[in-house]
Amino acid sequence: MTSKEHSQRLWYSEPAQNWNEALPIGNGRLGAMIFGRAAEEKLQLNEDSVWYGGPRDRNNEDALPNLPKLRQLILEGKLREAEELAAMTMTGLPEAQRHYLPLGDLLLSFGGHGQPVEEYSRELDLDRGVSRVSYITGGVSYTRELFASYPDQAIVVRITSDRKHGISLKARFNRQNWRMLEKTEKWQDSGLVMNGECGGQGGSTFAAVLRAVAEDGTTRTLGEHLLVEGASSVTLLLAAGTTFRQPDPALHAKRQLEALSSVPYEELLARHIADYRSLFGRVALTLPENPERSGLPTSERLNRFRQGEEDHGLISTYFQYGRYLLIASSRPGSLPANLQGIWNDSFTPAWDSKFTININAQMNYWPAEICNLAECHEPLFDLIERLREPGRVTAKVMYGCGGFTAHHNTDIWADTAPQDTYLPASFWPLGAAWLCLHLWEHYRFSQDRYYLAQVYDTMKEAAQFLLDYLIEDESGQLITCPSVSPENTYQLPGGESGVLCAGASMDFQIIGALFNACVQSSEIIGRDEVFREQLLAALGRLPEPKIGKYGQIQEWMEDYEEVEPGHRHISHLFALYPGDAFTVQGTPELATAARTTLERRLASGGGHTGWSRAWIINFWARLQDEGKAYTNVRALLEHSTLPNLFDNHPPFQIDGNFGGTAGIAEMLLQSHTEVIQLLPALPSSWSEGSVRGLRARGGYTLDFTWTGGLVTEVVVTCTVSGPCRLEGPGLAPVSFAGEAGSSYSFTG
Questions:
Q1: CA distance 741 to 748
Q2: CA 325 → CA 343, 392, 500, distances in Å?
């Protein structure tokens, strides 16, 4: 096997001992964690719509009558009284949204496995989207191939051996301690059906269906078991769903599997690989690689990396793994990737494995556009559309405002009322506004005016809420109140600490970005001139970013001390990334203050969670500090990466994987200013390399190579016609008028 082939896979020389070592497969909607055990295999299963409970109206009607008093208390600095009032009047009723659940486990018990296992290998082939387990026991060689097919909407497990009639197995479903909510039934002599309740008032029902297609041998069902005996090969097909999408998910899944049962395995595999590669194969990254390391098991490479060794091939694999995970957890028709993508084995998961929209859900989609997976962005857009209706109710009932809003969390039902009574985060009504900037970013990369005309009203509604929500302060500025700077705490000069505030810096950065996006959109599609003028007038009255006494970007309107200087959230640098109001060339003073902010955070222990470290990579990339960007890439892998390369908050959260992939891309290509910049933050140790297929705002796709840190060749492919400006080390500044569908080559 060549080093290039090695670099496109995760592989291990022993089975997973626990969930954090298991390997993920997924098709956006269906997912599995594969343990790779020889005699007793376990596939932990998820279906993205298995959530506890149904939709509810949780808006607190006491919010609006008490809003004037709450604002007065905050403006008077009576924090304790303000927070006590908010905790009673603004909390959702009940205080928690719905949470994500596992589908269950598929357990496979193999006969003839009494002897020791030799030549064991398990892998996840990123190039094909297929997991593979192989080993020898009792003189027989066994192989399993597993994948989650998007075109066929099923998980496929192919089991073969080199001995005719050499495969016997028992299969059954299991749901741990939640078995009271499900029942497994036989389906003819070759299948099982697990039906159950997701639980909670108004909750969905679910079904998982398994069918075995055996070559030679026999299949039969006994009790809750499916038995295959004396087969030469077996294909297990698994489909699942809930009443969130299908009125009878068991019947729907049976029909799927009846159709798939007559399709040869080779055809199922070919359909899956063709579909998967149409996305994954768009981008290739080559960094300097050590062939000796690329052949080692992934866990050993990670351990060596933690001990200070260089392994750029591992970084390249990590980058592509992030793209793989987005393809596997977010496809058109699925729900968006949640806090754990789609992979969750807990019935009471951390933070409910929901959509946390004060950064985490947004971070999941940072790589979507630049890393050429725009289709994978669509499930987030679908959720934003579903947020509009409940968000209008929340805006009106809680704040007396038009438009729509959402707070720092939402769930499968697009719940927009506050989540928890967690004062540092709960009462922050800018979740919808931040999400809507993803609609604008999709336009910036695609230049699709028809799309922009479709989503403009959604962006406008989020902006309308903010126009209504802003209040005038003593100096005539428009400010948010109440709000928070997620999820930080400030300290008043007298020693009192608080979180509720009048105007957090992040608020104004998001509002400025959304209002500007709406203004530009309105001009592009040629409508809504009156609303455009309202936004422009409001933009002129928003507080400007301030530089505080330490030379840092102020996190609040006042230059408060922070209770936790090393806090994981660095919300006041939103305008540096993912926003673009702070730039090295355009606003050098603010860029310098952003650098100081980062240095202070890190000196106080910041970056201690995986997603925070990933955000920091993107910050340093935007500041064009290649050394610090690379240091933080290393830190992400050294301190916040699990053996299966999942991000570790701790516990597992997938946002760090996606943020890390986006950060590596941002080190290689930036397009948030008027100029496309190549290699803006290239570490000296990546002095040679190439990348193919990264996308830039303006409708461009770029392939480029570099040697000695200098660009040697670049090819720009244009989606639309228009002017393009390009610069990079070793490349004379380039300006040209591109034609849609054409490619242009330049040499350094």
A1: 23
A2: 10, 33, 36
CA distance 127 to 9: 7
Pairing of strands 233-242, 104-110: unpaired
Please, which residues have CB within 8 angstroms of residue 236's CB and are 6 or more apart in sequence? 108, 156, 157, 158, 159, 171, 210, 211, 212, 213
Cα–Cα distance measured from residue 120 to residue 143, given in angstroms and rounded to the nearest whole number: 10
φ, ψ for residue 565, nearest 5 deg: -60, -25
Cα 11 to Cα 279: distance, rounded to the nearest angstrom: 22
Strand 743-747 relative to strand 710-718, pairing: antiparallel
- Cα–Cα nearest to 354, from 330, 338, 331: 338
Per-residue model confidence as pLDDT tens digits over 153-170:
999 999 999 999 999 999
Task: Give the residue among 15, 5, 647, 633 at the shortest CA–CA distance from 305.
Answer: 633
Using the structure block, give the residue that is written with the tokens 């640098």: 573
C-alpha dihedral sign at 344, 348, 351, 355: positive
Structure tokens at 630: 């690379």
pTM given for the model? 0.98
Write the pLDDT tens digit of every residue in 3-40.
343 459 999 999 999 999 999 999 999 999 999 999 99
Contacts of 470 (CB under 8 A, 6+ apart): 478, 479, 480, 511, 538
Q: Quick one: tokens of 485?
A: 């700077």
